[in-house]
Amino acid sequence: MPDAIMALAGWIGATAALGLVAALFLRGKVKWGWFGAALLLMAAYDALLTRGYGHIPLHFWPSDWNWEGKAMALALSLAVALALGARRVGLTLQQDRKGLPGALVLSAALVAVFLGLALYFPGQGTDADTLAFQLTMPGLDEELFYRGVLLLMLNEAFARPLSILGAPMGWGALISSVAFGLAHALGYSEGGFTFDALTMALTGGPALLLVWLREKTGSLLLPVLLHNFANSISLLV
Prior knowledge:
Distance between the termini: 38 Å
Order of helices and strands: HHHHHHEEHEEHH
Oligomer: single chain
Strand content: 5-15%
Structural class: mainly alpha
Largest sheet: 2 strands, antiparallel
Helix content: over 70%
């Protein structure tokens, strides 16, 4: 548990540091209440995702996958989404008609890349539990949190001053994507932090593209579908 707490501190600390860098550029235009709430949400999310760092004895069924932690984290994100407004966090099937064509082009390109990688690096078989998990939980949980409620809070804190190919973007897009990458690449063990630059690039980079899709369409639908496709395609080919 101490290692997990240190990893959490590093994750939130790095995210907070990037927020302070953003504040230097924005010169007093940051809404600190929203940023503080985002950091607190990250802490609550991590506590649930890890099942209270192993102290919540909840088991749906025997599995090597964290169904229980994902379900609790997803429930938290859903509760926050409903409190903030489902449409505001992208929890809608409705797509922005003007943004959808460009979003579909990028989505098709990403599908081709993920499929190509899966064919080049074939999987080694799977089982029903693994396939069911990868087809559902990563995208549902992580997209609603990182590209949904967390992104909304960060956008409220830092605004979205840029239009990138028709999608409103700002520091929130960058900070949420870095937080997503760090969640996979940053760890703590044996008295020191660990960091995998390749993992950071392979998660944080695509996260920015998923933010663009969410902002372009106003919906989390495409990000969720692409996320689960990326996680599961190597199990199917």
